[in-house]
């Protein structure tokens, strides 16, 4: 419609306004309509109520107060019956060594995981005492903030040398070792293949990691291969995602729940075939299997570099407190910044680390103790075979066996009661045994109730005979 | 943990007349210029980081980063490259400020193992020499029980020779010693609760017991700045977690009201229970929880309170009994009192105290009682001895003197630092003193300069703190004498002038004390 007329009007604002709005009037009609609708829409949105998903804005204040008054929470903990089986602990007076005083009675210890007898070893105690006199008891800080002692560095060095790996890292609590190691590597979206009989700390580590968990039947390599093949097919469908999804297999060397060993050579073959990493949990097999006590890798003659991470706790054979992970530096060093139980927790008291170092010294000086332990395990395994009504679960060379009922009564509670009476019978006759404890509701695959029988190097032939005959009598008396 | 707030400087109120003593906290705001320069600093570091990565990739610079094995080259990479960007390029530069090995008791003065790095912190060599008599402002030794002589150490030594060091069994199996039961009774007496139970690791106490208390269908209201163990325990429990602003009672009340009125999301079923997770002293901020208000809210809305006294047990209160004692409240009001033995008792482990029913339930359902080894006997003895000392049951006034000494040291140290012009966060009574440094370069510089002058300090940066709020954190101990504190203060002032970290714009402040 032509340009606006040039009119000199000085600083008159209203005239300027008219001039500036001239193009508006000249614009095409559809343009104006569209813009008008848009402006009206913006005004509407500005004045409309914000939409919050949570609030129900139709409640008045009084109604809210009523709801708050009426709400009754559950009690913080559900009421417990007085005779709950796990409420009454057996009290041990004095040191938990070979001759242990349980509930006031002196018994032979078949229940503590003291495989190599270091709990009562004078050398270990002396070293711990020297360390106490030098460093005190606690460390007063995490590893990052003046909680690293030269003893810790020495222990890590010694463990790495003993296991013939590049590096080792120690934790101050055995349970927290594998439970912190798994979430440091496996994150949301990664895939983990775990054996069904994996222990509780592995389950907690997996839960913390938020990865996909695939269970395969206990020690069943075909089941594992089937799962791996399925995963391979899945990968081919989505190669981009497959390139960033990490995969792990987590197994134990000697399973604490079933006392048998994992087929490590087959696992290593599967590792290279399907490109999965292996994490090995060796709490029960460290200091037990292998010619020098290095665990299941030495037992099978597998190259230790093929295993990405070996984790073990020092509360069994080494008879101290804490745990460690060892492996290549590439893998282990990552935990120093992302292992939660390492970074955010106080370090291991130096006297316990010194005790572990001394235990390692003894293990290195005297590798015959492992052969002796294996002999004793075979002996116990054989001696317990003749018990009627109970069957022995576990390999012949496993030091922590399970005794299960041959025929279950149908209800877990009754089974537990029967086994408890066997344990009580044996405690009366000075053999200390214990029921294997589980959290019934939290375990994914709850093992059947059993009695734990632990073989230690300090047990003599007579002790073993006495225990075996005691269990036989108990079984005959109670399981008629 | 994203914390997008910039500290505000505020005089604290007494809140509804619940406080019997003045509650003075300050979080001075970050000066604008400093914030801008800090971001710039991080920007420059990031650019250099990319440059160094580029040089490393093209083999122009030697690569110290550990690499995967040849045989496993075609596996999916274990770490994403950018995940470790911060570690490789920022953390590595100042890595010598952390993990400093020591070789003596972590008391008021400590001996450090000297180490040098020939290749800019990628590897360390130990020269074999020891830096002796470094004043220790970093260890959590609030009451000075980290000692290798004296009543506690003698008792532990005796037990070491008698009982040995390990237990090799769980509490429910064969690991329950009579000493454990005695210790737990003593802990219950100390706290003023009906019953208590101890565990071998403080971190694990939280991560294993919170899942036993709550589950699906429960709500956990957790403070913004809670420790990693509380966050992990809350996650493992499977409950819904909602985070309220740090120490902000209005935010907590609003969340409680919303939760009860609206119920569970989507189904609107009522919540089974609500658990509030707070800490006594927050170690990165130095703030003390507003316990009287939290308890008032908890009673009004029938929620349960879980108080983590990791840093405050032994360190606060006229009797050293923690934050409940500090505010003069009734310990029975707190449903679950949790704490650790590492800090004030010079031992290791954690405990939970509360009513008898709670502890009975935990004795049979706690993950730790069933699957984890019980505590080592000498550690138990140390706890018993130090607790008796604090309570005065060993016949001396040593415990009471130490508690008093700590309170005096704290007030003195904080006052002097504020007068010097540093920005200090937190409550006036908290023995944890965070001092703001802000800029990334000053983190490393502060740590090193202090060590040159024989003072050992702890510096923290991202990710333990928000990215621009890096700080140095001092932990006061009852074992620090006034001379040591004065030496430390003069050195801090010297280094503070050298590095220009005296940022406070409110020098020689007079706090308004609003009393009840």
TrEMBL record, chain A:
It is an enzyme of class 2 (transferase). Keywords: Acyltransferase, Lipid metabolism, Membrane, Pyridoxal phosphate, Sphingolipid metabolism, Transferase, Transmembrane, Transmembrane helix. It comes from Oncorhynchus mykiss (Rainbow trout). The gene is sptlc1. Belongs to the class-II pyridoxal-phosphate-dependent aminotransferase family. GO terms for biological process: ceramide biosynthetic process; sphingosine biosynthetic process. Its cofactor is pyridoxal 5'-phosphate. This is Serine palmitoyltransferase 1. It catalyses: L-serine + hexadecanoyl-CoA + H(+) = 3-oxosphinganine + CO2 + CoA; octadecanoyl-CoA + L-serine + H(+) = 3-oxoeicosasphinganine + CO2 + CoA; dodecanoyl-CoA + L-serine + H(+) = 3-oxotetradecasphinganine + CO2 + CoA; tetradecanoyl-CoA + L-serine + H(+) = 3-oxohexadecasphinganine + CO2 + CoA. The keyword Acyltransferase applies. Component of the serine palmitoyltransferase multisubunit enzyme (SPT) that catalyzes the initial and rate-limiting step in sphingolipid biosynthesis by condensing L-serine and activated acyl-CoA (most commonly palmitoyl-CoA) to form long-chain bases. The SPT complex is also composed of SPTLC2 or SPTLC3 and SPTSSA or SPTSSB. Within this complex, the heterodimer with SPTLC2 or SPTLC3 forms the catalytic core. The composition of the serine palmitoyltransferase (SPT) complex determines the substrate preference. Residues 106-469 form the Aminotransferase class I/classII large domain. GO terms for cellular component: endoplasmic reticulum; membrane. The chain crosses the membrane at residues 29-47. Pathway: Lipid metabolism; sphingolipid metabolism; Sphingolipid metabolism.
UniProtKB/TrEMBL annotation, chain B:
It comes from the Eukaryota. GO terms for biological process: ceramide biosynthetic process; sphingosine biosynthetic process. Keywords: Acyltransferase, Endoplasmic reticulum, Lipid metabolism, Membrane, Pyridoxal phosphate, Sphingolipid metabolism, Transferase, Transmembrane, Transmembrane helix. One of its GO terms (molecular function) is pyridoxal phosphate binding. It is found in: Endoplasmic reticulum membrane. Pathway: Sphingolipid metabolism; Lipid metabolism; sphingolipid metabolism. Signal peptide: none annotated. Belongs to the class-II pyridoxal-phosphate-dependent aminotransferase family. This is serine C-palmitoyltransferase.
């Amino acid at each position: 419609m032509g340009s606006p007329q040039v009119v000199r009007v000085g600083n008159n604002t209203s005239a300027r306004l008219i001039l500036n709005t001239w193009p508006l009037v000249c614009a095409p009609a559809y343009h104006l309509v569209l813009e008008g609708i848009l402006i009206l829409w913006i005004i509407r949105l500005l004045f409309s109520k914000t939409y919050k998903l949570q609030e129900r804005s139709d409640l008045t204040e009084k109604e809210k107060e009523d709801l708050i008054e009426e709400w009754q929470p559950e009690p913080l903990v559900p009421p417990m019956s007085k005779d709950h089986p796990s409420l009454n602990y057996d009290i041990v007076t004095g040191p938990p060594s070979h001759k242990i005083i349980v509930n006031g009675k002196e018994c032979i210890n078949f229940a503590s995981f003291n495989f190599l007898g270091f709990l009562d070893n004078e050398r270990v105690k002396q070293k711990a005492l020297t360390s106490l006199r030098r460093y005190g008891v606690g460390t007063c800080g995490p590893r990052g903030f003046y909680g690293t002692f030269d003893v810790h560095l020495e222990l890590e060095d010694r463990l790495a040398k003993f296991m013939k790996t590049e590096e080792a890292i120690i934790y101050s609590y055995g349970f927290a070792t594998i439970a912190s190691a798994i979430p440091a590597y496996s994150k949301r979206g990664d895939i983990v293949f775990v054996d069904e009989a994996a222990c509780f700390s592995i389950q907690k580590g997996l839960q913390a990691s938020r990865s996909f968990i695939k269970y395969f039947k206990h020690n069943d390599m075909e089941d594992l291969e089937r799962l791996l093949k399925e995963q391979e097919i899945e990968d081919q469908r989505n190669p981009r995602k497959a390139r960033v999804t990490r995969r792990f297999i987590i197994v134990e060397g000697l399973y604490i729940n079933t006392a048998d060993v994992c087929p490590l050579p087959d696992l290593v073959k599967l590792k290279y075939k399907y490109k999965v990493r292996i994490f090995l949990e060796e709490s029960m097999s460290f200091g037990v299997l292998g010619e020098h006590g290095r665990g299941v890798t030495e037992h099978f003659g597998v190259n230790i570099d093929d295993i990405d991470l070996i984790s073990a706790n020092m509360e069994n054979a080494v008879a101290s407190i804490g745990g460690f992970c060892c492996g290549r530096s590439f893998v282990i060093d990552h935990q120093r910044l992302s292992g939660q139980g390492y970074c955010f927790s106080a370090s291991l008291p130096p006297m316990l680390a010194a005790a572990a170092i001394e235990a390692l010294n003894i293990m290195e000086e005297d590798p015959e103790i492992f052969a002796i332990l294996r002999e004793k395990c075979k002996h116990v395994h054989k001696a317990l075979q003749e018990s009627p009504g109970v069957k022995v679960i576990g390999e012949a060379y496993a030091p922590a066996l399970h005794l299960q009922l041959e025929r279950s009564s149908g209800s877990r509670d009754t089974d537990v009661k029967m086994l408890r009476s066997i344990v009580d019978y044996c405690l009366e006759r000075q053999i200390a045994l214990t029921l294997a404890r589980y959290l019934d509701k939290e375990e994914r695959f709850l093992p059947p109730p059993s009695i734990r029988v632990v073989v230690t190097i300090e047990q003599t032939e007579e002790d073993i005979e006495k225990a075996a005959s005691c269990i036989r009598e108990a079984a005959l008396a109670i399981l008629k | 943990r994203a914390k997008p707030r910039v500290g505000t400087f505020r005089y604290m109120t007494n809140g509804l007349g619940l406080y019997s003593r003045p509650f003075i906290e300050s979080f001075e705001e970050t000066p604008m210029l400093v914030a801008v320069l800090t971001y710039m600093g991080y920007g420059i570091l990031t650019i250099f980081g990319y440059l160094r990565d580029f040089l490393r990739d093209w083999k122009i610079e030697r690569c110290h980063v550990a690499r995967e094995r040849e045989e496993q080259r075609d596996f999916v990479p274990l770490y994403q490259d950018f995940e470790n960007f911060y570690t490789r390029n920022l953390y590595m530069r100042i890595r010598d400020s952390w993990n400093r090995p020591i070789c003596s008791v972590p008391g008021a003065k400590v001996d450090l193992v000297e180490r040098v790095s020939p290749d800019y912190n990628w590897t360390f060599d130990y020269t074999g020499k020891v830096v002796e008599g470094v004043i220790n402002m970093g260890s959590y030794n609030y009451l000075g029980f980290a000692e290798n002589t004296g009543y506690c150490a003698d008792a532990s030594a005796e037990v070491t020779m008698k009982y040995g060091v390990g237990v090799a069994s769980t509490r429910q199996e064969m690991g329950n010693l009579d000493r454990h039961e005695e210790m737990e009774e003593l802990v219950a007496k100390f706290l003023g609760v009906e019953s208590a139970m101890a565990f071998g690791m403080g971190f694990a106490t939280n991560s294993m017991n919170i899942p036993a208390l709550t589950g699906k269908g429960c709500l956990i209201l957790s403070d913004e700045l809670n420790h990693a163990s509380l966050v992990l325990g809350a996650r493992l429990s499977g409950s819904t977690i909602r985070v309220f602003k740090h120490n902000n009672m209005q935010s907590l009340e609003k969340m409680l009201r919303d939760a009860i009125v609206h119920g569970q999301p989507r189904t609107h079923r009522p919540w089974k229970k609500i658990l509030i997770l707070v800490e006594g002293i927050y170690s990165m901020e130095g703030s003390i929880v507003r316990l009287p208000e939290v308890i008032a809210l908890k009673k009004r809305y029938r929620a349960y309170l879980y108080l983590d006294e990791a840093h405050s047990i032994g360190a606060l209160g006229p009797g050293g009994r923690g934050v409940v004692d500090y505010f003069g409240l009734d310990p029975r009001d707190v449903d679950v009192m949790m704490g650790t033995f590492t800090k004030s008792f010079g031992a290791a482990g954690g405990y939970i105290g509360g009513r008898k029913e709670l502890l009975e339930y935990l004795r049979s359902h706690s993950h730790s009682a069933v699957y984890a080894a019980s505590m080592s006997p000498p550690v138990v003895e140390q706890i018993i001895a130090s607790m008796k000392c604090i309570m005065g049951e060993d016949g001396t006034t040593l415990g009471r003197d130490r508690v008093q000494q700590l309170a005096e040291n704290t007030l003195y140290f904080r006052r002097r630092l504020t007068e010097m012009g540093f920005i200090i966060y937190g409550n006036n009574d908290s023995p944890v003193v965070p001092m703001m440094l802000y800029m990334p370069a000053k983190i490393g510089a502060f740590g090193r300069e202090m060590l040159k002058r024989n003072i050992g300090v702890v510096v923290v940066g991202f990710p333990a703190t928000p990215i621009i709020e890096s700080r140095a954190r001092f932990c006061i101990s009852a074992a620090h004498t006034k001379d040591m504190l004065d030496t430390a203060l003069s050195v801090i002032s010297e280094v503070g002038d050298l590095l220009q970290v005296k940022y406070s714009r409110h020098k020689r402040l007079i706090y308004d004390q609003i009393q009840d």
